[in-house]
Structures are given as C-alpha cells and as structure tokens.
Amino acid sequence: xxxxMRKIIxxxxxxxxxxxxxxxxxxxxxxxxxARRLIGTxxxxxxxxxxxxxVNVRLTACRALVEPSEIYLYVEQTAVDYSTKPYRQRIYxxxxxxxxxxxxxxxxKIEGEEDLVGACSNSRTPLVNLEDMIDIECAVSxxxxxxxxxxxxxxxxxxxxxxxxSKSTSEVSLxxxxxxxxxxxxxxxxxxxxxPQAGPYQFRRKE
Length: 207
Known about the structure:
The chain has helices at 3-22, 28-38, 45-50; strands spanning 40-43, 57-64, 71-79, 88-97, 102-110, 133-145, 148-152, 158-159, 167-174, 178-186, 192-194, 201-205. By secondary structure, it is α+β, with helices and mostly antiparallel strands. Strands 1-2-3-4-5-6-7-9-10-12 form a ten-stranded antiparallel barrel. β6 (133-145) and β7 form a beta hairpin.
C-alpha cells in the first residue's frame, strides 16, 4: 500500500471516529439519567470559600407529580448566607427532543409557589397542577459528551426582564455529583447586567 493510500484511509478512520463521537441519539433512559443527576441537595459552598465573587447557593431538586407519565422536577435555589427562603422556584420538564436529538429541560414558573417552599427537604412529592405552571418558553437542550450531559439555552437566549435584562442565557453541564450552571442576563445592547463574570456556579452534591 503506497503512502498516499495509507493517508486517505487514516483520514477516513479519524473522520468516522469524530463523527461517531459527536452523534447523540437520546433515549428515555437518558431523560431519566438527566433527572437523576439533577435530583438531590447541592451547594456551592466550596466555590464560595475559594472565590468571594460567588456566594453559597443551595440547590434542591426532587420529582414533582404533574402528569404521571412524564418526568417533572421541582427545583429551588437559595442564597443561604442571606435568606432561608428560595429566590428561585421552577418546574423542569425533562423530555427527549427528537427534532434536535437532545434531552430538553423545559422551564416553567409556578403560580402559588410559596406553598411549595421546602417540599424537597420535607421528603414529600410536590403536587403541581398543569394550570398553575407558566410556560416561559425557555429550555436547556442537553447532549451527552463522554459521560457528561452538557448544553445551553438557544443562541438567542430566553426573554427575561430581571435586573434590567432583556434576555438571559444558561449553560449547564451535569456530572454524577456536580452541576455546573452559568446563568447570565443581558440588556438590549448586549451588555451583561447580572450573573457571574468568570464562569459557572459549581454545585456539589451533599450527602
């Protein structure tokens, strides 16, 4: 075999390997695994102690009963140094999205969210009515890269008017016991108006 032919075959093998690594065909098992990695109690205490630009945030998530055949999570985030009440409460719907070959986490606000505070810590399954869920038309699309599920909101971001923003973006990666989440808000001129500058929050699972 001459050198030119060997080079062509080598390039074909490398190309096929790269394509295979980049392909992801999600299954319902992937959706369950994404939910499993999100469920639990996490905090950013280690990151906050290492870098004063970050505060200690507790993140809790548990299964919520909305539609029995679907995967819903109830999620709270609390800045534990400043309050005992969560500053963010959401419902995530975890589902396979065949259009984008990803696991989609659709995000909903909740009417009457104050009644759900502490639901995960109380070891009870939150019951949420569909009519109490507000679709904010925002979702994170996750794909599996190696052993990590990673992804983001669309490039255009999601409509968000908090803190002078006109849109927000989220970048997320899920390992077995670590969630990295980088949420940022931007004004209509593209200037970042809230969220960390240096990188994502790192939420480590608590036993």
